[in-house]
């Protein structure tokens, strides 16, 4: 401990370094980056005939090893510590006649201009640039200016560094402004236990003649696993790319030592495009006692199923890990923008990388199994991709579900892990590589439907609960033949209003959708169509309800309100709020009063609430109770969704037995001969878990 400086400023003190090397003696001191690790990078930029200057050489063996292996012999080493210079001269004077050690301050060197082809710095810049104080930055500017002066045009400044953000930023900005090419290499780890958890980098700055005016910056990074450099647009992007690699190294270090208490996630990106290719979640199961062969496994989530509860939630992944019986499970989600060559291709691609995340208990001889559902990687076909000014970029895709079922989904890419709308396909659309069943070879036109939509099926559990909520309507049983006026705010793929329209033969359904693109998507891709009893109004739901409320308020007091049921299934475009459905303005008291105005006294207002902020959720419930005296809630198991059923009067309250009877009556009436009905529509079960708030 006595070798450490009292303050970072002492790293620039000759007196400190004299004391350091006298106390350390002849033992070489390597800050970081042993020669075998640095050698592949140095070989690229140091030629045998180059004249090399090593600044702040200390008693590192780097110069000696370069000389002894024939990489280069004309090497000049300088340092401000007289003690270490004498020590190094004694070590090399009889063995390395062409290499010299000089006592010299690199901030004021005695060499002529353009004297060297290479300047090599191993940790010296990191030792000087300890903070961003004015005096420190001025010292670094002098160091850089001297390096620029003594290097020839075409020469390289090689700086071995841990790449702290302020060090990297200063270096990149200085040399890129001078018109130099800046390239960052990540040094491949030897795999041995390192002194530092952070990876080592080599900055390679190549000197070019400075061109007057604003020449384009050339900034590149070379990850350790590839030789081909990746070009970036700005110093900020370069710093961010290095930071990502540092975070990954710290994560590897953490996971290699102890089990991870919390689930850790990271993206592995495509080398060419830089886009995410795999999303990994590391799940440790402390309760699982690994047997001889159950320390670690990789689970490939089939394409299109990453949003399911088991794979898409923390609790689901924890249950999955526990059920597999492995101490650590690494789940792998595949991205829709990428192409994959089957399970064998994925295994070959991931094998090296995933082993970096193995638990410390994994024996070196053990093979790590790759698991999946049914042994395949699933299927996903993007049918349509577009961008809406209101909803942003979105895709319509067909995926294979569990078993033989196929589904069509609408995904907003700003929240790619949430299925916005989903419909079951009656027959799977042809997937890439599959032959069409039709005899003709003509390709379908973009307007041609690729598969029939099962309009009888509600994929979303919260939609089933919303339909079940119609049992809360006052008056006679809500049989399919009873006239109903229903307002639905939020179209999506249109499955909810379409189901109400198709199964309640006397229902008149009005749908309000703010985004005209969604009406086009629902019509073209989800089998939605308008008619006499089903109309879509392209409008802001807030404005539409406010207009209706004003019209109702202008009528005589005895005039009835318009709607038996009002359903809100509208997502929020603002992802910074802890409530993704509905937007906050839809649950403010003045607006809810307008909703109540257009709702019949015996009617029901049904709201899909998705709120992860506990305080915000309680605030929403309190506001709803102020407006609607009777409030029921139905949690959707395994999801954040909670369906709220609001009624304007306590007179509408029904006991559980009555609700169950009404639900069974409705379900029986909907199960008409010749009309498809899914067995999962247990309306009575949907209402059993209701609780009054």
From TrEMBL:
**Keywords (A to Z) from UniProt:** Methyltransferase, Multifunctional enzyme, Transferase
GO MF annotation list: methyltransferase activity
Q: Where is the Methyltransferase domain?
A: 50-173
Bias (Basic residues) occurs at: 434-444
CDD domains linked: AdoMet_MTases
* InterPro entries in the record: Lys/N-term_MeTrsfase_sf, Methyltranfer_dom, SAM-dependent_MTases_sf
Q: What is any one GO biological process for this UniProt entry?
A: methylation
Q: Which SUPFAM superfamilies match?
A: S-adenosyl-L-methionine-dependent methyltransferases
Record keyword Zinc present: no
Annotated region (Disordered) at 429-448
Family statement drawn from the similarity comment of this UniProt entry: Belongs to the methyltransferase superfamily.
Kindly provide the name given to this protein in its UniProt entry.
eEF1A lysine and N-terminal methyltransferase
According to its UniProt entry, this protein's organism is Baryphthengus martii (Rufous motmot)
